[in-house]
Design goal:
Layout (H helix, E strand, L loop, with lengths): L2 E9 L3 H12 L5 E4 L28 H15 L2 E3 L3 E5 L4 E6 L2 E12 L3 E3 L2 H4 L9 E3 H10 L7 E5 L3 H12 L3 E6 L9 H8 L6 E2 L2 E7 L6 E6 L12 E4 L2 E4 L3 E3 L2 H5 L24 E3 L10 H21 L7 E5 L3 E5 L2 E2 L5 E7 L3 E10 L2 E11 L5 E5 L11 E6 L1
Parallel strand pairs: 1-2, 1-6, 2-3, 6-17, 8-15, 9-10, 9-15, 10-11, 18-25
Antiparallel strand pairs: 4-5, 5-6, 7-16, 12-13, 13-14, 18-20, 19-21, 21-24, 22-23, 22-25
Helix pairs in contact: 1-2, 1-8, 4-5, 5-6
C-alpha cells in the first residue's frame, strides 16, 4: 500500500479541529488534511441551538451552528482537504496514520499531527448507578441530539443528575417543550456548571437544584417509573434517612466528559492524569515531537471560544514544526500549587507571552492567582469569584518569566 505524505494531519472536525486546520493552512502549510469520522463538520456545535457562542472571539452571541459555520467557511477559504466519514484506525509515534473510509484503507505520513478528537459523555455504567435497567435513561447530549436534531421528545417528567452545563441547558430546553423537570441533583456541594447557566436555565424556570445529592436507585421494568435520591455526607457516604422517591419517566445524566485520547495513548503521548488530556508545552506540542493537541481532548472547556483559540495556536505550531522540524526548547516547568487543580501549558520557553488555562479545586472569593518562580512573584491577578466549573485564563508577558528561577508554580493566595 502506497503511503501518502502530508504536511499537517488534523484528527477531528469539531470546533478544535476546524480552528487548527484553517490556522495550519494559513500559517504556510501546503498540504493540510482534516480527518472527521462523522458526516458533517462542526461536531457537537451542530446540536447546540442555544446562543452564547463567540462572545470572546466575535463579540456577539451566536448559536452553535452559526459559530461552526464561520470556521467551516475559514476552512474552505484556506483550501484544506477534508476526509469525511473517515476513521483513524492506527497512529504511530512516527506520525503514520492508517485511515479507513468508504473508499477503503489508506496510509498517511504526516510531518506533524494535531490531535483534536474532542470528548464523550460519561454514561450510567461509568458512575455505577444501581437499580433496574429500563428505557428512559439518557446522557444529556443524547437528549440534546434527539430534541434539536431529530425533533424527538424523550419524556414528560424528568430528573437530571449532574449540574454540568449541557444538563443545565437541557433543563431549560425540556421546560420550554412542556416537560416537567422535577429537579437537578448534584453530588458535589457546589454546581458543576457555570453561574450563568444556573441562573438562566434553573432559576428562571423555578427548577430546584439539590447539592450534595445523588441518585441511588432507578425504578421501572420496561421504562423508568422513578428514581431514589439521597443526600451525600461530607465524606461521601449516604446520609441515613435522606432517601426519597421522585416519580419521573426520564433520567438525564450530565455527569462529566471524558477526553477522547485513545489515539493519543496509542501513539505514546504522555497524559495528564487530572485533565485526561496530553501534557503540552506553550506551543501545544505534546511529549512526542510533532504531535500537537487542542480543544476538549486536551482539557474540557466551558467556552468554545477558548477551545478554538488554543487550537489555532496548535495548528500554527504544527505548521512551524512541519516546516522546520523542531520548535524552541522548553526549559521552564509549570506546576499547580495550593488551591489549583491543574494548569495548562505544562512547560514553556519563556521567550513569548503565554495564555494560561487553569481550574481551582474548590469555590472561593476575592483571592489572587499567583505565578511564582521560587520566591519571586511573576504575576499576581485578583479573582473576585472562583468556581471549579469556570476556567480561568490569564496572560503572562514574556519578560515576566525572567523573575526567579526553577519551576513556575501557580497557586491561589490571599
Amino acid at each position: 500500500m502506497k503511503t501518502e505524505k502530508v504536511d499537517v494531519a488534523v484528527i477531528g472536525g469539531g470546533p478544535a479541529g476546524l480552528a487548527a486546520a484553517s490556522s495550519a493552512k494559513n500559517s504556510g502549510a501546503e498540504n493540510v488534511v482534516l480527518i472527521e469520522r462523522g458526516e458533517v463538520l462542526g461536531g457537537i456545535l451542530n446540536q447546540c441551538i442555544h446562543d452564547g457562542f463567540g462572545t470572546k472571539i466575535f463579540g456577539e452571541a451566536l448559536t452553535g451552528p452559526e459559530y461552526a459555520q464561520i470556521y467551516i467557511d475559514k476552512l474552505e477559504d484556506a483550501g484544506v482537504e477534508t476526509l469525511m466519514e473517515t476513521m483513524v484506525l492506527d497512529l504511530t509515534p512516527d506520525r503514520e496514520l492508517t485511515i479507513c473510509s468508504e473508499g477503503g484503507i489508506r496510509k498517511l505520513e504526516a510531518s506533524s499531527v494535531v490531535l483534536a478528537m474532542g470528548c464523550r459523555e460519561r454514561t450510567r455504567g461509568a458512575i455505577r448507578i444501581p437499580g433496574t435497567r429500563p428505557a428512559g435513561v439518557f446522557t444529556a447530549g443524547v437528549v440534546q441530539d434527539y430534541m434539536n436534531m431529530r425533533n424527538i421528545l424523550v419524556g414528560r417528567k424528568a430528573v437530571i443528575l449532574g449540574s454540568g452545563d449541557i444538563g443545565l441547558i437541557m433543563a431549560r430546553r425540556l421546560s420550554l417543550e412542556g416537560v416537567k423537570v422535577e429537579c437537578v441533583a448534584e453530588i458535589l456541594p457546589y454546581p458543576s456548571g457555570i453561574a450563568r447557566n444556573i441562573v438562566q436555565c434553573l432559576d428562571d424556570f423555578d427548577i430546584p437544584l439539590y447539592l450534595s445529592t445523588t441518585v441511588v436507585d432507578i425504578h421501572g421494568t420496561d421504562h423508568v417509573e422513578g428514581i431514589t435520591l439521597a443526600s451525600v455526607g461530607p465524606r461521601g457516604g449516604i446520609v441515613p434517612g435522606s432517601k426519597r422517591f421522585v416519580e419521573c419517566d426520564t433520567l438525564l445524566l450530565s455527569v462529566g466528559l471524558i477526553a477522547e485520547n485513545e489515539l493519543s495513548r496509542k501513539a505514546g503521548v504522555e497524559m495528564n492524569p487530572v485533565t485526561g488530556g496530553p501534557i503540552v508545552d506553550d506551543q501545544f506540542q505534546t511529549s512526542i515531537p510533532g504531535f500537537f493537541c487542542g480543544g476538549n481532548c486536551l482539557q474540557v472547556h466551558d467556552l468554545v471560544d477558548y477551545a478554538s483559540l488554543e487550537s489555532e495556536k496548535a495548528g500554527a505550531s504544527a505548521t512551524a514544526y512541519a516546516n522546520e522540524g523542531r520548535l524552541p526548547e522548553q526549559p521552564i516547568t509549570v506546576q499547580p500549587g495550593e488551591g489549583v487543580r491543574y494548569v495548562v501549558p505544562n512547560t514553556l520557553s519563556g521567550a513569548e507571552a503565554v495564555d494560561f488555562s487553569l481550574r481551582v479545586g474548590k469555590p472561593d472569593e476575592d483571592k489572587y492567582v499567583v505565578f511564582k518562580r521560587g520566591d519571586q512573584v511573576v504575576r499576581r491577578m485578583r479573582q473576585l469569584s472562583m468556581e471549579p466549573s469556570a476556567m480561568i485564563r490569564i496572560r503572562v508577558r514574556a519578560d515576566r518569566f525572567n523573575k526567579g528561577a526553577g519551576p513556575l508554580t501557580v497557586e491561589v493566595a490571599d
